[in-house]
Amino acid sequence: MPNDMFLDNLTHTLKERGFGKNNTLVATSLCCDEVNRELEKGLKKTFGDNFSMGGLAGFAFGGVTSFCAMAHHIPTNGNCLVIFGPHVGVDADGVVGKVNRRGRAHSGACCGSAAAAASYVSSVRKGVSKVSDNPTDPLDAQQTYVGNMLLPYGTRLALAIDPAVELPISLYDAQKALIDKIVSKGCGEVGGDGKIALLGGIQINTPPGTPDYFLPMSFELLDNKGNKLANMIGTLRMNRSNEDLYALIALGMFAATLFYVM
Amino acid sequence: MPNDMFLDNLTHTLKERGFGKNNTLVATSLCCDEVNRELEKGLKKTFGDNFSMGGLAGFAFGGVTSFCAMAHHIPTNGNCLVIFGPHVGVDADGVVGKVNRRGRAHSGACCGSAAAAASYVSSVRKGVSKVSDNPTDPLDAQQTYVGNMLLPYGTRLALAIDPAVELPISLYDAQKALIDKIVSKGCGEVGGDGKIALLGGIQINTPPGTPDYFLPMSFELLDNKGNKLANMIGTLRMNRSNEDLYALIALGMFAATLFYVM
Question: ipTM of the assembly?
Fold first, then answer.
């Protein structure tokens, strides 16, 4: 759904659970790409400035330490909202995996890190490249991690009707696995009776002037022992099947086309 | 100097070099901590949404891939501004290394990642802890990297008049070393005659209602072969000695005190 509608639904759901503007800290784990600041702007309006745990492709590379630091910044007796996920562009010609950028005549890769990781995974599957050792130097560690965390999804990507659509879905699953480990290790640092709202989804970036879309994939309420108190995904979308993503991308294409025709 | 004044000077200097709103992409490498969004908001007003290369403590953990991706997003024939650096809080009682946060009665560590790294470095120097192996798992890789990149500055920290003031200065030097390597490897991806303005400094966070300060430490103009075309630091500050930092922190304490007295 368009970001504005998503943010309205999200705010409403969280308000019912006691998450207000003054007692909630929002932590984002979105990709470095500047097109993702738009969603953060929307979140800031409701919850104030965001802690940022994310790195390339949206993985929560700030890790356990970043979650624990964030937990120590939560207003006393308050809660946190952690929102994570990959992103995918849809350009003005409807091409999934590309986006039109300010001041450039042609659309370009979006998400670029994801595209590079998919290329690496494909190359490993074909036997052209070897599996990279996990890095020991921070100079370009993140991209190697992105590639290796995408590797288990190689078959899904290879068999997908549209690999460009499957890519963010696979990345979402890989990111969910990482953030679950992080929250499991760090949740005890949330003070008092504080709750953790853990929301994962796929950001769909569209041409300038068209609203971006957010596809919620999971939305859980946890206590600070890691117990799942509620599954709230139903408050944000009708169903969880991947058809939703195809529908949303089609909608994004429609909106984009409309924008360029008008 | 206060962020507003810093941003005015920065915009003026860059304008003279041909960096305008429509042809410049800004990339930040600031810490995850939500107190650093304030500076990004100021930058957005002038240059639009920021690419985000940063992770814990402000290190450019997005690495070479993030710089190259950013370079591919620059408007055609345009330039980029890369701004990086650690941050340090000054709380309402004038304590350096702490900050007052929304909804919390007592001030807390700022930067928390830096404080944890300094504690690790001190512990290694005393022989209490061993040097950590560089990580091979992304779960908490960044904090291990922060600690190990701070290790060479252990003597400086141990001998400093005020280790809390020396900490961000040492982190700045460590971050400058990393970003120089990243820019050296990635600069060729900046297209055409595009320039790279590489600006490093220390963000000083103050209590809510008081302006934050930015202490510029280096400001270089590079071409896309990595050649240094100009040293522009003189346009942002009078001199580069560390006394400036002490003076600014004292000023921050004064402003903070004033705010609480008023």
Answer: 0.91
